[in-house]
Amino acid sequence: MKRPGALFQPVLELLAALGRRFHFLAVSVTLIPSVLGRPRSFIEQLFYLGSVSVILIAVGGLFVGLVLTLQFYSALSRFGATSSLGGLVTLALLRELGPVLTALLFAGRAGTSLASELGLMRATRQIDAMEVMAVDPMRRVVAPRFLAGLLAMPLLAGIFSAMGVLGSYLIGIKMMGLDPGVFWSSMRHEVSFHSDFMNGMVKSLIFGVACSLISLYEGFHARPTAEGVGRATTRSVVISSMTILALDFLLTSLMF
Fold first, then answer.
1. Do 233 and 119 contact (CB within 8 A), yes or no?
2. DSSP assignment of the chain, as one string?
3. Please, how many CA atoms are within 13 Å of residue 37, restricted to the half-sphere of its CB?
4. How far apart are CA 157 and CA 58, in angstroms?
């Protein structure tokens, strides 16, 4: 027979895990001013995270725009509403697909890179060496990467949406023969800068915080073995993906 306290043990462990991650987030946020005081490491990480992801993001956005336009054109043509194609595709990209798919691709590419890099530093005792030399690894290693990931996500989401609109333009105008003026006019009238573009950027910023936090936390606390680094990398992708989808539902219900 289980002890009464054993029934609540999984809940307590979950709360403890959440508490550790929120503490990690709080420490990372408080160290951001020190990163801005020494911007070189932050700029290097921002360039690195962007460069490893930008081709994947751009190609993904282009093909998502192509597929969306084909699907929407087929549906809208039944009702004679193909003039709304440009606005509909752009809304889908800015509100949902741009931030969400960018975050998922970022978690799979840059997030795994962050987790494996910090996990390798843990496995090779580099983090322990910093602590022995009185160098704060959170300030030196984690904070620049956290801020870079936070800012890289909105930039990559903007590239994803722009490439998606380009793909929609190529299919809608060059292949389907829609009038360019109608296409851009629909986009201009349907899309609001504040309620659509800015809300999409807020989403991607929050996703950037979540992905960077989870990847850095898993890598920083990885077991110092090859198996531990591999498991930390896998956990970072799985947890980040589930968190992104859950946050997307919550943010969408609040914004729209």
1. yes
2. ---HHHHTHHHHHHHHHHHHHHHHHHHHHHTHHHHHHSHHHHHHHHHHHHHHHHHHHHHHHHHHHHHHHHHHHHHHHTTT-GGGHHHHHHHHIIIIIHHHHHHHHHIIIIIHHHHHHHHHHHHTTHHHHHHHTT--HIIIIIHHHHHHHHHHHHHHHHHHHHHHHHHHHIIIIIIS---HHHHHHHHHHH--IIIIIIHHHHHHHHHHHHHHHHHHHHHHT--SSHHHHHHHHHHHHHHHHHHHHHHHHHHHHHH-
3. 7
4. 9
Average pLDDT, the chain: 88
Q: How far apart are CA 224 and CA 227, in angstroms?
A: 8
- In which band, very low, low, confident or very high, does the pLDDT at 4 lie, cut at 50, 70 and 90? low
Indicate the residue type of 178: L
Token pair 């987790």 is at which residue? 115
**pLDDT tens-digit map of 229-245:** 999 999 999 999 999 99
Cβ neighbors of 44 (< 8 A, separation 6 or more) are: 144
Residues 6+ apart with CB under 8 A from 103: 153, 157, 204, 207, 208, 210, 211, 240, 244
Among residues 104, 72, 98, 101, the alpha carbon closest in space to that of 87 is found at 72
pLDDT digits (tens, 9 = 90+) for 101-142: 999 999 988 889 899 999 999 888 888 898 888 888 898 899
Q: Which residues contact 81 (CB under 8 A, 6 or more apart)?
A: none
Return d(Cα 41, Cα 230) in angstroms, integer: 26
Tokens 């921002």 correspond to: 46
